[in-house]
């Protein structure tokens, strides 16, 4: 059982505890953010599923903050199942981090090794593998926000090298059947269109977001292909949508969309970011 050390602390987000907390709070208070700090009030509301961006906090932090602010008044999650793309292209097709803990400047988060094993045993496509996670940032950047909002929790990190529809739906089924009855928060980590003019990116991304909010996995894959939408985590989005539908999803809605151009003012080649919430009726 080892400790996974952060690979983008000091670049995508601050490398010290004090500066990182300040950066997270600035994301919540940013004009593009929710405009307030989360109250940390837990209640009886059902735990949703989330789609959340993973760029540097300067760019996507305020949009990501909307996802985490939406957890107020919900049951406190015991475990977070976090699914992201494998940008580095190393390791296995679908990899679940098996055991140990993940470290950030805010402390360590233990892996739910039992749930990780159950998910991996549910499909031959899914393996237990640390190597696939060594260089990946898409899951890591969610952790400080989760630590800030949730405090203590367990984690199941999953990265997808193969993002085709069959693989995504099989992973979604494996997640759904093994988190049933648990207080689990499901998160898909993805950015949307990459390096296109602002107006073009927004137009494309809204087509994809419309299919996500309709809980339409087939339609989502169709528009991704037809419109050549360069969302890096389309497979994780589809996996979490599949798991959500099997867990009694009732609806999904966009919490916030913005581009890097909305932050920097440079709209010539932007990246799109969205926070989307999926309401689950089954747990």
Tell me what you see in this structure.
This is MEMO1 family protein B9J98_04865. Belongs to the MEMO1 family. InterPro entries: MEMO1_fam. It is a single chain. The protein is α/β, with parallel strands linked by helices. It has one domain (41-280): Protocatechuate 4,5-dioxygenase, Chain B. The protein is built from 9 helices and 12 strands. The strands form 2 sheets. Strands 2, 3, 4, 7, 8, 9, 10, 11 and 12 form a 9-stranded mixed beta sheet that branches. A 3-stranded mixed beta sheet has the order 1-5-6. α5 crosses α8. The radius of gyration is 17 Å and the shape is globular. The relative contact order is 0.19. The mean pLDDT is 96.
What is the structure about, briefly put?
The chain has helices at residues 17-29, 57-69, 113-121, 143-150, 165-179, 198-213, 217-226, 234-246, 260-264; strands at 3-4, 49-52, 79-85, 94-96, 101-104, 107-110, 126-128, 154-160, 184-189, 194-196, 249-259, 270-280.
């Amino acid at each position: 059982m080892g400790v996974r050390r952060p690979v983008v602390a000091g670049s995508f987000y601050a490398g010290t505890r004090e500066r990182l907390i300040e950066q997270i709070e600035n994301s919540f208070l940013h004009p593009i953010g929710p405009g307030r700090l989360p109250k940390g009030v837990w209640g009886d509301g059902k735990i949703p599923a989330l789609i959340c961006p993973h760029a540097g906090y300067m760019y996507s932090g305020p949009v990501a903050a909307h996802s985490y602010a939406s957890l107020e008044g919900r049951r406190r999650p015991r475990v977070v199942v976090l699914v992201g793309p494998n940008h580095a292209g190393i390791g296995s097709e679908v990899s679940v981090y098996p055991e140990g803990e993940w470290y950030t400047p805010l402390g360590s988060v233990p892996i739910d090794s039992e749930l990780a094993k159950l998910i991996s045993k549910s499909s031959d496509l899914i393996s237990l593998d640390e190597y696939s996670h060594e260089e990946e940032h898409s899951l890591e950047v969610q952790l400080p926000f989760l630590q800030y909002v949730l405090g203590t929790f367990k984690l199941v990190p999953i990265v997808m090298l193969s993002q085709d529809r069959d693989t995504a739906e099989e992973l979604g089924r494996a997640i759904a059947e093994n988190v049933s009855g648990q207080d689990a928060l499901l998160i898909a980590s993805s950015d949307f269109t990459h390096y296109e003019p602002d107006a073009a990116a927004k137009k494309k991304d809204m087509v994809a977001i419309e299919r996500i909010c309709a809980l339409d996995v087939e339609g989502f894959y169709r528009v991704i292909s037809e419109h050549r939408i360069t969302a890096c985590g389309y497979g994780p989005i589809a996996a979490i949508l599949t798991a959500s539908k099997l867990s009694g999803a009732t609806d999904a809605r966009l919490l916030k969309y913005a581009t890097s151009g909305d932050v920097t003012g440079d709209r010539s080649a932007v990246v799109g970011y969205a926070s989307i919430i999926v309401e689950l009726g089954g747990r």
